[in-house]
Amino acid sequence: MFKQFEEKISYPKIEESILKFWKENQIFEKSISLRDEKNSFTFYEGPPTVNGRPGIHHVMARTLKDLVCRYKTMTGYQVHRKAGWDTHGLPIEIALEKELNFSQKSDIEKYGVAEFNKKAKDLVYHHIEMKEGWRTLTERMGYWINLDEAYITCTNEYIESVWWSLKELYKKGLIYKGFKIVPQCPHCETPLSSHELALGYDEVNDPNVYIKFKLKDEDASILVWTTTPWTLISNVALAVGEDIDYVKIKTEKHGVLYLAKARLSVIKEDFEIIEELKGKALLGKEYVPLFNYIPVDKKAWYVISGDFVSTEDGSGVVHIAPAFGADDYEVSKKYDLPFIQPVTKSGRFTDQVTDFAGRLVKSIQFQTHEEKGVDPDIIKNLKERGLIYRAGNDYTHSYPHCWRCDNPLIYYARDSWYIRTTEIANRMIELNKTINWCPPEVGAGRFGNWLEENKDWSLSRDRYWGTPLPIWLNEDGDMIVVGSIEELKEGFVERDGNKIFVKDLPKDEIDLHKPFVDEVKFEKDGKIYTRTPELIDVWYDSGSMPFAQWHYPFENKEIFESNFPADFICEGIDQTRGWFYTLHAIATLVFDNVAYKNLIVNELILDKNGLKMSKSRGNVIDPFLMFDKYGVDATRWYLVTTSPPWKPTLFDEEGIVEVQRKFFGTLVNTYNFFALYANIDKFNMSEEFIPYSERPEIDRWIISKLHSLVKEYTELMESYDVTKAARQVSNFTIDQLSNWYVRRSRRRFWKSEINANKLSAYQTLYECLLTVTKLAAPFAPFITEELYQNLNNVTKKENYESVHLAYIPKPKFIDTELEEKMEIAQRVVYLTRSIRAKNNLKVRQPLLKMMVAIDKSKRDALSKMEDVILEEVNIKKLIILDDDSSIVNKTAKPNFKVIGPKYGKLVKSLTNAIKLLDGNSIAKIEKEGELELTIENEKIKITNEDIEIVSHEIEGWLVESEEGVTVAVDTELNEDLIAEGYAREFVNRIQNMRKDANFDVIDRIKVAYFSDQKLFDYLNKFNDYISNEVLADEINFNSDLEKGFEQNFQIADFNCKIIIKKV
RNA sequence: GGGCCUGUAGCUCAGAUGGUUAGAGCGCACGCCUGAUAAGCGUGAGGUCAGUAGUUCAAUUCUACUCAGGCCCA
Questions:
Q1: Nucleotide nearest to A669 in CA–C1' terms
Q2: HSE-up of residue A349 (Cα within 13 Å, Cβ side)
Q3: From its phi and psi, is residue A278 left (phi > 0), alpha (psi between -120 and 50) or beta?
Q4: Structural contact between residues A128 and A135, judged by C-beta atoms closer than 8 angstroms
Q5: Disulfide-capable partner of A999 in A3, A592, A941, A1003 (CB 3.0 to 4.6 Å)?
Q6: Is the peptide bond before A565 cis (omega within 30 degrees of 0)?
């Protein structure tokens, strides 16, 4: 027996039981072990940072990852997939600082690095395993990935692989220490890399200040604009553009000022232009420094030239502080300007800056409190000295913020370690061209541009919880780079004044983290090497996962080699400069290869109003809530089908409801219909298989449609267009299978004894259901499993334990001609229904005849579909009209695609001429294939191809027309038709009563009714028909049935009481 | 300021190698059908395909610019 679904299905409940089934039978494990290892498809899991709870956007990315892997499995590939967790770095440290109530970085030192790191490790493991955490989400949503052998970035093995790769880079001369302007987070007291910078731009209001720099040798000032007043203390020069036009103006209040002519709009008072001059003329002018806290050793405070100066904002003069800007630093080297660095790595002024010593340069939000920056006080100071032209705090722009603590960054000159990625930038660009990006524009555009502007990778971080930079230095700056634990063992530690070699330490004391690694020292040629204290960028960790997840090259050499590069990865667009970049950069650096061949980029998920989801707006969607309400399948299906992954998705719960009702509801309903009748007929696919060629037209049609679907689906999936693939499955199920095939074929299931025709219907519907189930399986893994089990457990046609171990079938029976035929039939039916609807003619009322005018080439197809059409529209006779039929009025329409290229400019006049052609001329073209016309004094022979002939009305009939098909319906009724209509009404009432009375579909009944004699006269003619339809053994007029089920009706003008009773 | 994407019905989205009637679902109104039945189907209202200019016999589609929104970069 096929299992029937209850009327009210609880999808979440089914999903729970499927999860159990998978677990007990190890289906996931089998989906890998049962596939040929030589036919592998490699997927890399981008490790989420295990920090806090997962959200709906994680469900999106994980659905895409999962469905591609499941699909590949179902096409025969072996798809290994290791989960991974990103466990190092600032996000974890910050979460922990919060927990420990620390307010600044130095608290960690006070607390003890060893203890801090131990806590960090505990925290990440807790986040992985906690309730409603990562493991729960992954399992509940059916994301199949190996969680038990996940790679975890904070293990010794992982770090050792990372170290190995760094040593490889060192050997290639790609690692160096440099003094550069870097984005520095004063809160976290660490530099960030440019890709981290990309993660944290925010719209903010900054100071908008115009300052007067007094010139030494004339009574005038240069007007300078800045948004960072705190950098003025380090000012050493002013830059102008040599070719920019400047003006010298006189004002009442502020005296004589120099500024760019194009920026005069900043002067809000009356002024007089005294002189116009080029920037060149200003070069060398000396000015009085604003501050002199710090003595300088070189010539400073004069006007220099800078090609970066623009007149787009400000005053057209840029103040130069070499310690705080990349342009400033570069130009200062060119002019040999002094370097003033009065700010510490934590963003505070040094004691040298007496008035502001210890003050923060920017406001910072600490865990416990906010501390204000120094800008307002500097402005106040300058104002008191009359040096401010104008000061506000209203300059709105996007400014980089720390991606984890949200505080504004400062550009800051300092020492740090770099990877020379610029050396392989061209190679990265080249390799990138071989990657299949979905969508392509992100790869060519966003990522491509990024590669072209490549800067060296700022690798080091001044933090605690992360992979240590494996570099040891001696006092001369000579370095040792450690590439493995073996090499580390050559070092020693000092314990109680004793020197102990690392190799002699117990194994569990060797922890590739701070503070242990800092203890280790090396001795070479009599010199002592100590570790440089920095960690590496956490993004380097995740970018190393292709090899580090396998502890390569220390173990698993073959596995790594056969699984590199990945065939497929999939992450959010925010990873363009994150993981996508670090994977690509490291693969290019270490292996001179790509790290992935195909990738799907997914966009943000917004709320239904298009706003970003955020806790403060309260519009965050909890994935677990969706799962409990609608189930995982509907949520997954909705996310994938509502818009392509690479377009922002507006998340609307209503959408899930609709998906569930329309697609899943229809699919399950269709299955239930099948199960109902198959059970009655004891059908189980053990019957003789009826070859497609011997099946009725409608069966061959749906089979052909099904196989066309498989073909299209496969093509789309192969090109990673998963949204379209799923939409096709849904359209087929709803429109073709349910609304046409099943509806058209219903009678075959519920009528008559079992014969070839009925068997054919069962076999056809079974195949459709089974195939649709398989196609939908990667997207909706649960309900498809349930359906597959229900179908296959009875028939035992396949011996796969799970739909996910089955194979996507190959399309083999496609009959395009037949599909086209049915399309014509469907069009005729729709047109006919439209006529009936417009004229209020119920379908239950049979009509005598209809006529169809259609192009010659399609007449044959139409006549083959006659039965389907007539039955569907309840009309007795179909007349297909010939060309020379005089009842059709024909006009001609130009076929622009043909005449356009042929006649060019004549098209306009020709169009008019064609539209004016009369019936005779059209008939002539139809008969002779051509007609001569004179257009603008040119003789033109138009042929059949040049025009399209449209039949648009039939005299005296109700007519509808569309795309070259014209349908006309004869609405005249006679007594027989009326009688038959009544009989149908009567049947309909009884069927409804059977339903209301809860009779079984196969129960036989007796019928009795009371009504007008006239109605009886009509109905009596159709007694056999009625009995047959309602399974009645007898029908009696004007008699009663004891204890029968009775109801009163109105049939046309007659009142009627009907009583039915089971036999 | 630069790059990329988006702009089609009240809403969510399709589509068109440029061809004269631009589609679907949801919502609304009115019908219909129903032995799958708390489904289904049809009809109707609703669109200057963001705007302007250009290329073309023909532009919603191609090009340029403008406007609006998003993401990214400076």
A1: B36
A2: 23
A3: beta
A4: yes
A5: A1003
A6: yes
Distance between CA atoms of A52 and A38, rounded to whole angstroms? Answer: 39
Q: Is A399 helix (H, G, I), strand (E, B) or coil?
A: strand
Residue whose token pair is 């240069």: A222
Residue A742 in contact with residue A673, Cβ under 8 Å? yes
Token pair in block for residue A635? 């949520």
Distances in Å between the Cα of A229 and the Cα atoms of A136, A205, A225, A321, A361 are 50, 14, 9, 11, 9
> Quick check: helix, strand or coil at residue A623?
helix
Catalytic residue of the set A131, A615, A897, A1043: A615
Q: Of A374, A350, A322, which is closest to residue A207 (Cα–Cα)?
A: A374
Helix A975-996 vs helix A1023-1030: angle between axes, to the nearest 10 degrees? Answer: 20
Full 3-state SS string of A102-137: CCCCHHHHHHCHHHHHHHHHHHHHHHHHCCCCHHHH
Q: Where are the beta strands (DSSP E) in A479-588?
A: 479-481, 492-495, 498-501, 521-524, 527-531, 535-536, 566-572
Q: How far apart are the first and last CA of chain A?
A: 26
Amino acid, res. A614: S
**Number of residues that make up chain A:** 1063
Strand segments (E) across A401-517: 410-419, 436-438, 457-458, 460-461, 471-473, 479-481, 492-495, 498-501
In angstroms, rounded to a whole number, what is the distance separating the alpha carbons of residues A70 and A94? 37
Positive or negative: CA dihedral A523, A528, A534, A539: negative
Residue A365 phi/psi, 5-degree rounding, is -95, 110
Reply yes or no on whether A579 is catalytic: yes
pLDDT in tens, A156-206: 999 999 999 999 999 999 999 888 788 888 888 888 765 566 566 666 778
A539 carries an active-site annotation: yes
β-bridge partners, A201: A400
Residue A735 DSSP symbol: I
∠A760-A762-A764 over CA atoms, to 5°? 65
Residue indicated by tokens 């209020």 = A840
Exposure of A5 by Cβ count < 10 A (0-12 exposed, 13-18 middle, 19+ buried)? middle
- Distance in Å from B4's C1' to A444's CA comes to 9
The helix (run of H) or strand (run of E) holding residue A586 is: helix A579-586
> What's the whole-model pTM score?
0.83
Residue nearest to nucleotide B19 (CA to C1'): A896
Q: What is the 3-state secondary structure (H, E, C) of A757-809?
A: HHHHHHHHHHHHHHHHHHHHCCCCHHHHHHHHHHHHHHHCCCCCCCHHHCCCC
Q: In the complex, which nucleotide's C1' lies nearest to the CA atom of residue A327?
A: B74
- ipTM for the whole complex: 0.89
Closest nucleotide to A444, Cα to C1': B4
pLDDT at A867 over 90: no
A615 annotated as a binding-site residue: yes
Cα separation, A347 vs A736, whole angstroms:
67
Radius of gyration of chain A (CA): 40
Q: Answer yes or no: is pLDDT of A110 > 80.
A: yes
Give the tokens for residue A126.
Answer: 């807790």
Distance A120 CA to B2 C1' (A): 42
pLDDT tens-place string over residues A78-96: 999 999 988 888 778 878 8
The active-site residue, picked from A22, A472, A579, A701, is A579
What are the pLDDT digits (tens) for A888-917? 677 777 778 777 777 777 777 777 777 777
**Cross-strand partners of A419:** A175, A457
Burial class (CB in 10 A: 0-12, 13-18, 19+), A1002: exposed
